[in-house]
Amino acid sequence: MTDCIFCKIAAKQIPTKAIYEDDDLIAFHDINPAAPVHFLIVPKQHIATLADCSESHAALLGKMMLLAPKLAKEQGCGYEAADGSIGTGGFKTLFNTGPDGGQEVYHLHLHVIGGPRPWRGQR
Ligand code: 5GP
Ligand code: ZN
Asked: Where do the HIT domain residues begin and end (predicted)?
């Protein structure tokens, strides 16, 4: 998609400091953070919304979800629990889908939002 901002970031047409990158995914800090830590995990392939995903995207979606706690830990908002009890730290994971879901950029992305309280993430 030539006019898609996240395609341009993935293609390095817009310089953005990646916190993670591989053949399938890129992750970078949100330009307008809703919390002390707020980054986006974005597939390099253009998919408009979560509702456009099918079985063929299951592995990609799984990879995005499994990357979230790893990067959250690196970025200082990981969740730690010693023995299955309630631990410390933590983060929200969020896909906004469509106008009523509050989606602004129509290129699939997973928000990871966290950091030390106090903050009240409403997103
Ligand atoms: P949505 O509402 O679509 O789920 O969220 C899109 C997110 O992308 C917003 O939180 C917004 O701040 C972020 N964003 C939009 N444009 C850019 C950009 O050019 N660079 C970065 N790093 N984040 C962006
Ligand atoms: Zn795109």
From this structure: 5-123
ipTM: 0.99
The range of the structural domain enclosing residue 59 comes to 1-82
Domain count, the chain: 1
- Whole-angstrom Cα distance, residue 111 to residue 96? 8
89 in a domain, yes or no? no
* pLDDT at residue 94 is higher than 90: yes
How much is the pTM? 0.95
Residue ranges near ligand 2 (ion) with Cβ within 5 Å: 1, 4, 6-7, 46, 107
User: Per the domain annotation, does 116 fall within a domain?
Assistant: no
Q: How confident is the model at residue 2 (pLDDT cuts 50, 70, 90)?
A: confident
Contact 103, 4 (CB under 8 A): no
Residue 39 belongs to some domain of the structure? yes
Please work out whether the CB of residue 105 comes within 6 Å of at least one atom of ligand 1.
Answer: yes
CA of 84 to the centre of ligand 1 (A): 34
